[in-house]
Design brief:
Layout (H helix, E strand, L loop, with lengths): L1 H26 L7 H22 L5 E2 L5 H9 L11 E4 L1 E3 L9 E5 L18 E5 L4 E4 L1 H6 L5 E3 L17
Length: 173
């Protein structure tokens, strides 16, 4: 009788633990902060800054050297918006324009790949890099697409001077 009672208690505990373990993924409040969520937000900020500039300067191409101090300061803030280092946001800062009706070219990319977007119920998403396009859109590209990018005209936004008075030119790779 005693063995049967112990078996019943142990099996009851096992069932409760198994049910809790199975239900936990459904009841937990997971956060999707950081990773590509944050990188996409930073890409969106970059696109918005250049998009507003483009509206104020119809038909002109953006160049960091010709931008106002306010625009320079806003661009210098983009890398620190959401994700702590060591990530880098590489962006074109010369001869660019945001045009929703224009061709879709990558103007900014996060060099770290993350797998938290799209958020999934089970497992993780594919590794991908956040990007901003010349149309003002943001999106994700695969690590293979990132590896094929020609980043010679891109600048690491961390190299923008904190006073936004100058830009240091350095190769992003």
């Amino acid at each position: 009788m005693r063995i049967r009672k112990r078996w019943w208690v142990v099996s009851s505990i096992a069932v409760v633990l198994a049910a809790t373990g199975f239900a936990f993924p459904f009841i937990k409040q997971s956060s999707n902060c950081g990773g590509n969520s944050a990188a996409l937000s930073s890409c969106s900020s970059y696109a918005a800054i250049l998009g507003l500039w483009s509206v104020d300067h119809p038909g002109q191409l953006f160049s960091y050297e010709m931008a106002s101090t306010d625009v320079r300061r806003e661009l210098a803030k983009v890398p620190s918006h959401w994700i702590p280092p060591p990530h880098r946001f590489l962006a074109k800062l010369r001869q660019v324009r945001i045009d929703p009706k224009g061709s879709k070219a990558i103007l900014m990319v996060c060099d770290d790949a993350y797998d938290n977007v799209p958020q999934r119920m089970f497992g993780r998403g594919p590794m991908s890099h956040a990007v901003a396009y010349s149309t003002g859109d943001v999106g994700l590209i695969s690590p293979d697409e990132f590896a094929r990018l020609d980043l010679r005209d891109f600048t690491d936004l961390r190299t923008l001077d904190a006073t936004a008075e100058r830009i240091t030119t350095s190769s992003p790779r």
